[in-house]
Amino acid sequence: MKKSLKLVISLVLCLAVVLSFVSCGLIYQPKRPAGYTGGFNPNPKFHVGLEIYWVETYEEAMEAIEHLEAYDNKIGQCIMSSYENEAVDAKYCFKLYKGNTQKRKKGQKWYDHKYSKVNVVYFGFLDNVTIEELEYSFFDKYKSFSVDIDYSKVNGSKLLEISHTCETQEFFDGERKVNCLIIDTERNCSVAELYYMNINDHWEELPVDFHEEFIKSIVPIGG
What we know:
Mean pLDDT: 84
Strand order of the largest sheet: 1-3-4-5-8-7-6
Low-confidence stretches: 1-28
Oligomer: single chain
Largest sheet: 7 strands, antiparallel
């Protein structure tokens, strides 16, 4: 009888602790609509402790970054770009990690809040896709490109002088892959790579002056 009573008391105490965490916002699981992917993954477990938001313009992205920094968020070092034209539709993805953070207050904007980590990624889409479609789909099913920064090479560098180089890699089966690297000319090393999704020949499918104009539009942030 005493053992049973102790077990009940223990369960009640455990439940009380969990509920107190939930009420404080330390543990909370937002409801996701059926089919939601955020542009990346439909598995609900992928989104535990993570919120994903997309914005359409460079101005919106920089404004969101300004707000996030005002709330003492540290933005992960990345390469931003304002590159957009008739061929390329720019979109910006914000990944907000919520580990040990408070729940947002009712009516509070997503960028007016403190998170454990914030990452921002630029995407240039050649296909016509809306944010609403992306949130229930996958970014890599469309013709697009993005920038993957090499953190070991950047490490706080301001990237004042940059250029690019493209190298063709050929495999034993005859498949060819083009690697376009962003070069820090001051240190003469590659600091980032352009990734092309579903683009067979970027020289043909992107504007002639793409590389030069894209380099001009780069703005390193975070870190």
